[in-house]
Design goal:
heterodimer; A: 138 residues; mainly beta; Immunoglobulin-like; six-stranded mixed β-sheet; three-stranded antiparallel β-sheet; 35% strand; B: 144 residues; alpha+beta
Chain lengths: 138, 144
């Protein structure tokens, strides 16, 4: 039984390792604006800019070494390495290679986090993601 | 010169005009509201001899060189130099024209002490500026 389980676990680990694009060395993703803990006013769009070092931006579907495209996660957790990033109101895709956006949020506390996806919207291994920040909309 | 003799130079002239206008036709269109700008440093800032330069782009996306996707381009940083006079040609590649063909949006820049100008210019898959050309304000920084 143990052998089978080990084999199954190994199989999962190997397939995940094969599927995921390796993260560029020293890739650093961060939210340049707003700052963690920032209080912003409601009723007007909030500009969010995406900071990325030691890695480049490429639109979806473009296979180019050490590049990916941005995803902004709103009130959501990162999906982990080597998996497809959902596409919904909490996971915004920037498949044209955008490096900033504006969002409108309801009053209250919200979390924002960036995660890079590869040409197929899969997260990198290890995942290239920013710190998750919290902002308050008043 | 008779009519037949006239025809040849005229055709040559037409061919020359067509050829001359081709690079203009080849330029990649950019959205009218596209804007490239410096997130950091801002105009007039004093910086150290090595600093991170952050390139901002609105209403367009970043793509590595060679990528043929509408409304995208890659950044170039112009140091102590004016914009190219001929926007129909690829941006020069030298120490005053830094190319970010791998889709970079930040760069570690090292400059000698003194005043320097910086300007951003976006270019298409072939390193040719868009139509209209998308460039930032030229800023001045003091390196100390």
């Amino acid at each position: 039984m143990r052998t089978l389980l080990t084999a199954a676990l190994l199989g999962t680990a190997i397939s995940a390792a094969v599927a995921a694009t390796p993260a560029p060395p020293n890739a650093y993703l961060y939210i340049g604006w707003p700052n963690d803990g920032q209080v912003v006013s409601s009723g007007k769009p909030i500009r969010v800019w995406f900071g990325l070092r030691n890695m480049g931006v490429a639109p979806k579907g473009v296979k180019y070494p050490h590049t990916g495209h941005h995803h902004l996660l709103i009130d959501a957790d990162t999906p982990g390495p080597g998996v497809e990033i959902p596409n919904d109101r909490q996971h915004l895709h920037f498949g044209t290679g955008e490096t900033e956006t504006t969002v409108e949020l309801t009053p209250g506390r919200h979390t924002l986090q960036l995660v890079m996806g590869d040409d197929q919207h899969l997260t990198f291994e290890p995942s290239v993601q920013s710190k998750k920040i919290t902002i308050t909309v008043k | 010169m008779d009519a037949a003799g006239m025809r040849k130079p005229l055709i040559l002239l037409l061919a020359a005009v067509l050829l001359a206008s081709m690079p203009v036709l080849a330029r990649t269109p950019a959205p009218r509201n596209a804007q490239v700008y410096f997130i950091w440093p801002s105009d007039g800032t004093t910086v150290g001899q090595a600093f991170w330069l952050r390139m901002g782009l609105r209403n367009m996306g970043v793509a590595p060189k060679g990528t043929d996707i509408a409304n995208t381009g890659h950044h170039h940083v112009l140091i102590d130099v004016d914009l190219p006079e001929n926007m129909n040609e690829p941006v020069a590649s030298d120490r005053q024209h830094l190319h970010f063909g791998a889709g970079e949006t930040e760069a570690r820049i090292e400059l000698p002490p003194g005043r320097h100008t910086l300007q951003l210019l976006l270019a298409d898959k072939d390193h040719i500026p868009h139509d209209p050309p998308i460039y930032s304000k030229k800023i001045t920084v003091t390196v100390k």
